[in-house]
Amino acid sequence: MESSTVSSKSAMDDDRAHPKHNASRFPVEVCENIIDMLQLGPRRRTNKDSRALHHCALVCRAWRVRSQRNLFYSFVLHDLPALQKFSAVLDNRPHLCDYVHEVTILGGTLYTTASPLSLLPIALREKLPRLQKLTVVRKGDGWYPETAKPGTVKSLRYLPLHHRFKLFLSAFTTVSHLNIFNVTFRYFSDLARMINSLPALRILICGGVRCMALGPMPLNVKPRADGIHTPALPFAPNLPELRLGCVDIYCTQ
User: Fold this and answer.
1) Domains of the chain (ranges, CATH numbers)
2) Suppose 182 and one of 11, 138, 161, 242 were both cysteines; which one would form an S-S bond, judging by CB atoms 3.0 to 4.6 Å apart?
C-alpha cells in the first residue's frame, strides 16, 4: 500500500510552482482528467504515481490544485513521526486540509507506547473537515509487535488507547467509514467505544480483530439489571452496514 508522503514539500509550496499559466496547449479539463488517472486509491497507486503527481503540482498553477487534491485525498501514516510531519504540513498549508478524505494508519508501531493511532485525534483535531474514511491496519501476519528500539518505546501485545481517546475521536463528525484489520484490543470495550464515538459512522468493516478481555462496557451497550437492553442512547445509531471476518469478540485470552 502506497500513499502520499510529507517529505516532498515542493509540491505543496505555491512559490515554487511554475509561474506560467499556459504550460499546455490542451484544455485544462483534459489535463485534469489525466492527472486524475494517477489517483487510483492507496491500494493501487504506486510510488511512481505519487512522484508523478508531485511533478504535476510543479508544472503550473493550473495543474497545482488538481495535483494536490489527488495527492492528499488519501494519506497513509506509518508511525508517530509521520503523523507529526503530516500535522505540521496541514498547519503550514491550511488549504490542504479540505483535500484529505481518507486516512490509513498502517505499520508495526501500533502495539507500542508510540502508537500513532492513540495520538491521531489530538494531532489532527479540527484539521480534517472532510475526512470520510479511517482505516487501521496492523502490519504483518502475527499478533505481536515488531521489536522496538531499546530505550525509546515499549512494545505491547495490544493496541494502546488513551482513556480520553473516545472523546477526541468524537470530534471527527464526518467519518462515515471505519476499517479495522489485524488489530488486537486490550478490551472489547475499547473497540465498542471507538465505534460508538463516530456519530456519522455508516460502514464498519472488521477483519482479524481480537480482544484480550471484555472490560467495562459503555452504558448504551450494557443490559440493565432486569436484563432488558434499553439504553438511553442507541449504540452506533447510524450504522446500517457491518462486515465481520475472523473476529474474536469473546476474549479468549
Assistant:
1) 1-73 (no CATH), 78-245 (3.80.10)
2) 138
